[in-house]
Design a protein that fits this description.
By secondary structure, this protein is of the alpha/beta class. The chain folds into five domains: about 90 residues, 2-Layer Sandwich (Gyrase A, domain 2); about 170 residues, Rossmann fold, CATH 3.40.50; about 100 residues, no CATH class; about 90 residues, no CATH class; about 120 residues, Isoleucyl-tRNA Synthetase, Domain 1, CATH 1.10.730.10. Helices cover about 50% and strands about 10% of the residues. It has 25 helices and 15 strands. The strands form five sheets. It has a four-stranded parallel beta sheet. A three-stranded antiparallel beta sheet has the order 1-3-2. Strands 6-11-10 form a three-stranded mixed beta sheet, with no helix packed on it. Helix 5 links the parallel strand 4 and strand 5.
Length: about 650
């Protein structure tokens, strides 16, 4: 409703500006008045037009208001202050629209999008920082699907990279293992209930220290690392077999970890197949033919194939010498950089490469299969790639490589694809000093006053994702056991899981993407303040109302149909109820805003504010003991609307609402 009325107001306003003032504006700002008593919308348009029309803002606003009324769905318009235009919705009509679920369709519903997220190096257990990536990506997938987009979810696996090589070095050089020994180790770990990703977590930290601990051996050990990396990339040797064995086993653990958060994938494209199927060769020919790449014959990049870096300034004396800031795509030794392989991969994503992966089934979810790339695949498989829009959830440190891939697409003439390529960047996750100590880490005295402590996989400092989830579930279970001893153990476990996962997902989503998160158990699990459990508890309260009233939310809405809500929406008392309906009406508006800005935090904030509005309403109005039948129907409908929009918002955030808490 809210989005529909806003669009209706903008259409009328554009018509007035065009007909009365012969003015066309690309954008028209709509604000919210400081208090609900002033209306639902505030338009500062008169101030923008004052200089252009050479007239006082107040005079312009008066003329606009005269032309705006009457407008269906609005009770009226008035000029405030020096020239603001306040717009008031017809509350009675609006409530009926919200109750009926009247809304507008958001543009872009038919698009085929591809969201790539998680993309953890398959060399050790997932940690808390990886969870932010996965939760952001999964939530954005849910938002896109909510407006009717076809969304492919991909998790890129760098199974031939340096971090996998480090674990292979650890196994074969530090531990002195052969391929057979590694297979025996994995069997032993499985038999004892130990986890390969946890084993590799510790091993990776030891390897990182091994490279640096002996100054005399440092160069030789780094060469071992480089030789191992080249062997894995080339394939057909024991190092590559060990790398394949370990990376595949760790990858399976990653999928199991993410499934605990209800995060699933459609395809796992791997670096190994991009190499073996020679994706780069096809991309290289396109890039050379279009002049995107050129061979450098001078300067520090002599012998390399390079491209002009994205955003590089053109200077007058650029022709006097080589571009020292050019982005190297193929090194002088013939190896391709990360950006080069990424360009080829994204040409495939958009269906522009002219070659495809083979595909094999890898992981079974309750309702669908997750496929993995292969050199030779199964004949019957879904179609992957060929997307119209791409969203890459990759941390902000990768902004430059991402920008260069977009620049390459533009240079190849794929301007529409470049315009629909979004680097969905985010900042890191750290730990509060209190959280680090709770996890058993020793925190130096000087670090205790810091807002956060950075995690480091190489140093082995951080919190494994599964350990974090387990700890949150244990804390939730303790609270549920105290509050609901009458429930079965199975029921209490289920509720504890829902609370813990809701707490974790909301904590990761409530911050805008460009904010560093300092994770803290106590803050995330609190039932008060801006947390997932607080919003879940608001839904639990609505269910309690209907349970005690021996009525369902659906029945309450059916009985409300035909009730004139207008008498209950005036005055201070009516304003507090109207706040709930108005906030509930904004859910689709927030969905639109989240997609347009690639920022799920706006929906998280909306859900919290709606929970607040409902809690204020709940404390102020005695719903079940209301003496007047028509007013009681209206109050029950208000609770039903809050429940509907809270559950809808939480579902888009990937959070369920328990029956009790």
């Amino acid at each position: 409703m809210y989005l529909r009325e806003q669009k209706k107001l903008l259409e009328r306003l554009r018509a007035v500006l065009r007909d009365k003032f012969q003015v066309e504006l690309d954008t028209i700002a709509i604000e919210q008045p400081p208090e609900i008593k002033f209306g639902e919308y505030a338009l500062p348009i008169a101030f923008e037009l004052a200089r252009k029309l050479k007239n006082a803002p107040r005079k312009i606003a008066d003329e606009i208001v005269t032309e705006l009324s009457p407008l269906e769905g609005f009770a009226g318009f008035e000029v405030a202050g020096a020239g603001y235009i306040n717009a008031r919705l017809d509350r009675g009509v609006a409530v009926c629209d919200v109750a009926a679920g009247a809304d507008v369709e958001i543009a872009g519903g038919g698009l085929h999008s591809l969201v790539e997220h998680t993309s953890i190096n398959p060399n050790k257990a997932a940690h808390v920082g990886h969870l932010r990536n996965a939760i952001l990506g999964d939530t954005f997938v849910r938002l896109l699907r909510a407006i009717g987009q076809k969304v492919d979810v991909q998790n890129y696996i760098d199974n031939t990279g340096v971090q996998v090589a480090d674990v292979v070095v650890g196994l074969m050089h530090l531990e002195g293992m052969s391929l057979g020994d590694v297979q025996a180790l994995m069997a032993k770990l499985a038999a004892s209930g130990e986890r390969i990703d946890y084993y590799c977590w510790d091993l990776y930290a030891r390897v990182s220290q091994w490279y640096e601990e002996n100054e005399a051996q440092k160069q030789a050990r780094k060469q071992v690392r480089l030789d191992t990396l080249h062997a894995i990339e080339h394939g057909g040797n024991e190092e590559s077999q060990v790398g394949e064995l370990i990376s595949t086993a760790v990858l399976r653990r990653h999928l199991e970890t993410m499934l605990r958060l209800d995060i699933e994938y459609d395809l796992l494209p791997r670096e190994s197949e991009i190499l073996h199927l020679h994706f780069w060769n096809l991309a290289f020919e396109q890039l050379k033919a279009k002049g995107v790449l050129y061979f450098e014959t001078e300067g520090k990049n002599k012998g390399c194939w390079v491209m002009t870096r994205a955003g590089a300034a053109q200077t007058e004396d650029a022709a006097d010498g080589p571009d020292e800031d050019a982005k190297v795509i193929v090194r002088s030794n013939g190896t391709v950089t990360y950006v080069g392989k990424d360009i080829a991969y994204h040409l495939w994503k958009f269906g522009l490469l002219g070659r495809d992966f083979g595909y094999q089934k890898f992981f079974e979810y309750p309702n669908h299969t997750c496929w993995i790339s292969a050199d030779q695949g199964e004949p019957d498989h879904p179609h992957f790639g060929g997307a119209q829009a791409i969203y890459n959830v990759i941390d902000s440190r990768q902004s430059d490589p991402q920008a260069n891939v977009i620049e390459a697409l533009r240079g190849l003439g794929y301007t529409d694809q470049a315009a629909h390529y979004t680097h969905f960047s985010y900042e890191m996750v750290a730990l509060t000093p209190r959280c680090a100590e709770e996890l058993g880490y020793e925190v130096a005295e000087e670090d205790r006053g810091r807002p956060y402590i950075e995690v480091s996989g190489r140093k082995g400092f951080g919190v494994k994702a599964d350990d974090l989830i387990d700890k949150l579930i244990a804390a939730s279970r303790s609270e549920v056991d105290k509050r609901h001893p009458e429930l079965s153990a199975e029921e209490r476990v289920q509720i504890a899981n829902e609370i813990a996962i809701g707490a974790l997902r909301y904590f990761m989503l409530k911050y805008t993407r460009n904010s560093v998160i300092a994770f803290d158990f106590k803050d995330a699990l609190s039932f008060e303040g801006e947390t997932g459990p607080y919003i879940q508890y608001a839904v639990v309260r609505t269910r309690s109302i209907f349970r005690k009233g021996d009525i369902t939310a659906e029945q309450a809405m059916a009985e409300f149909a035909g009730v004139d809500a207008s008498p209950y929406l005036t005055g201070e008392d009516g304003d507090s109820i109207w706040q709930v309906w108005l906030r509930a009406a904004k859910t689709t508006l927030l969905l639109d805003q989240c997609i347009a800005t690639a920022e799920p935090a706006y929906l998280a904030k909306h859900a919290f504010q709606l929970a607040q509005e409902f809690s204020n309403f709940y404390r102020k109005h005695h719903i079940l003991t209301e003496a007047y039948p028509e007013r009681k129907k209206f109050l029950l409908a208000t609770a039903a609307i809050a429940q509907r929009e809270l559950i809808r918002s939480l579902a888009w955030l990937g959070i369920s609402a328990p029956e009790v808490m």
